[in-house]
Amino acid sequence: AFMQASWDVEEVQAEGIQYLASFVEDKTAFPYLLTCTEVITLAMKVHTDSLDLQVEGCTLLLEILSQALKQGVMMALDESVASCLLHTVRKHSENEEFLSMLCTLLMMVSASEVAAENLRKVGIIPDLLSILRRFLHNDTICFSCCAVLWSLAVSEDNTDQAGLASAVPVTSAVLQEHLQNGVIAESACSALWALALRGCLADSDFEPTAALLLDALRMNSERARLVQNGCLALASLVRLSETAALAILLDSKGSGTELIKEEYHLHSHKPGVAEALCLLMNEMVQYDEVMLNMRSQKMEKLLSEIKLQFPFS
User: Fold this and answer.
1) What burial class does residue 167 get, using C-beta atoms within 10 Å of its C-beta: 0-12 exposed, 13-18 middle, 19+ buried?
2) Whether the predicted model's global pTM rises above the 0.85 cut
3) What is the pLDDT of residue 160?
4) Residue 97 has what pLDDT?
5) In the chain, at which end, N or C, are there fewer CB atoms within 10 A of the end residue's CB?
6) Whose CA is closest to 106, among 71, 132, 134?
7) Other CB atoms closer than 10 Å to residue 127's CB: what's the count?
């Protein structure tokens, strides 16, 4: 009520945010803090020119969301909150340090499907892509924005096909730039998988995207989650195009079938990886020429091994 009585007075809003922040460590106050997210974001929107207030508000929201996630509470922030956050993103689109914090907040917000849908409704996608293009070198921004794109692409009510399609080259650029950073590469592979599932890739994307995903698998072969999501992304590409299947077989950096064998032997105790590899192989054998090649590579032997390892799966 103290903050709502004086929206236009920056000092009042700053004091209000600082006062709320003093309750972050108090477990009994947590349910009340959850109800304050709209007040905090509105204060940020009204005073977008004040970077100090933006930083304090963003820090407090991060604290509240972190606590919520720890307690298994999913915060479905509404459209007005999403709109306020987008307003802040646009006002401070050049401030790399603050954007790093803000993109982390957007990633945490988008964990809720309702909140992800609200971010999409207010038009966040072009802004995310613009931020990624400008700050392709920034690890935090790339990791967070790819995670948000994944959430937006898997959101059930998604109708923004054109917006998501424009995310494909940018996400590929992130993966290319950060191939050797397993954490970011994993986030980008997941985003590409979701975009492929949505049918956002054009015919001309299939071959280069398949080659890029193979590079990510080679360079991060020890990361089970990346291997799993990379293979699921490849399976989605192969389902759409024989070109992608042939690109895997004939990759200039080495046979994709050999890579599949290596990845299985590295992660033979991980059912999720085995399942993703089987899905990929199943999509590949839909094409006669590809199946003949896989037979000549003794892939049936690998399938027998997987069947022995996971007899009940």
Assistant:
1) buried
2) yes
3) 65
4) 94
5) N
6) 132
7) 17
